[in-house]
Amino acid sequence: MQTIVGAIVIGVKLHGLDHISCDFIRIANCDYESYNLYLKAYFGSEKPNYGDILGSTVGITGVCMVVLMAIAFILATSWFRRSSVKLPQQLDKLTRFNAFWYSHHAFVVIYLLLIVHSIRLYFVRDWREKTVRTFHIVSC
Question: Into how many domains does the chain fold?
């Protein structure tokens, strides 16, 4: 199980960091000639800046998925699951196995965000490709 979690963490980090540190910056900083030639069809006539891309549906759903997966991961660790962390009594009820159990229900929301994230992809025009990729990812 730890191997699967490790692979997911590495994959999410590589995927997200690639977009945040490379792709978004290259799109936002490209010259107008290249933008009009290659990207105008996907982003529209006005060139987006870094914040526009990060604040788009694709950016927001991606960040939300990572945050929800991080919360589920943290609450699944043995520290929280076995109540090794000493918290005030009101918060102590939220930890232990209950936190693990309910945080993993967030994966329903994560899958919904994944579908929205995939449907709103920038560089894929045909809706069938978007849905096939989405359901292939979800079913794996």
Answer: 2
pLDDT band at 49 (very low <50, low <70, confident <90, very high): very high
Distance CA 132, CA 74 (A): 31
Chosen domain end from 14, 33, 48: 48
Residues 105 and 121 in one domain: yes
C-alpha 22/C-alpha 36 separation (Å) is 20
106-134 confidence digits (pLDDT tens): 889 999 998 888 888 777 776 666 654 54
Q: Which amino acid is at 133?
A: R
pTM, 2 dp: 0.75
Type and span of the H or E element at 51? helix 50-54
Give the residue numbers spanning the domain of 101.
Answer: 55-140
Q: What distance in Å separates the CA atoms of residue 52 and residue 91, rounded to the nearest whole number? A: 37
Residue length, the chain?
A: 140
**What are the distances in angstroms from CA 76 to CA 33, 103, 121?**
49, 8, 31
